[in-house]
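Thread: "does anyone have the structure for this chain?"

Original post by V.I.:
We have the sequence but no experimental structure in hand. Need at least a predicted one for the grant figures.
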Amino acid sequence: MPQPDHISKLGVPEPATLDDDLRTIWRKCLDKLGFVPNVYSAYSLKPERLRNFMAMYNEIMLSESALSKLEREMVAVVVSSANRCYYCLVAHGAAVRQLSGDPELGEMMALNYRVARLDARQRTMLDFAWKLTTTPWLIEDADRDELRAAGFDAQAIFDLAETVAFFNLSNRMASATDMMPNKEYHRAMRG
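Reply from O.Q.:
Generated one for you, tokens below.
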């Protein structure tokens, strides 16, 4: 059964009705990716929130960080797996496949990251992401100590926690709006 055709059950504005700065972003996405990520279209219902969302995403996922781009995408997929967020599993699973060059890694992150061959640092990072997502009230000094023992300093722990928190927010928005991923993500880096 194919994926539903809607972008968001709340509807999305026509791109021609968007402010100039957002239409420019749409054109850049089309030029660079060949499509506009549906998360942008869904958030365009509230243009200022879209701008804030993009700024926060860019800061967390693209700026200088103690976590590599691949590690941040792995965190996004593991958080989305815990939350069963279809949109983010598909979109960020594609990013994991692309960044790692491993078509299986994205699937392992989505279904059960524990089966993946990860180094001790990555395993500790993803265990923390899973726990912070599923039982945040149980996070304690021992969890931060484990991260420190795996090589994470205070800034790295902050970056990790912020990435986990951001994707918990994103997952809940995607679920609340029944946001569908772009079909292009399904085909990306499938070997």
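V.I.: this helps a lot. The CA atoms of residues 82 and 130 lie 7 Å apart.
O.Q.: and The radius of gyration is 17 Å.
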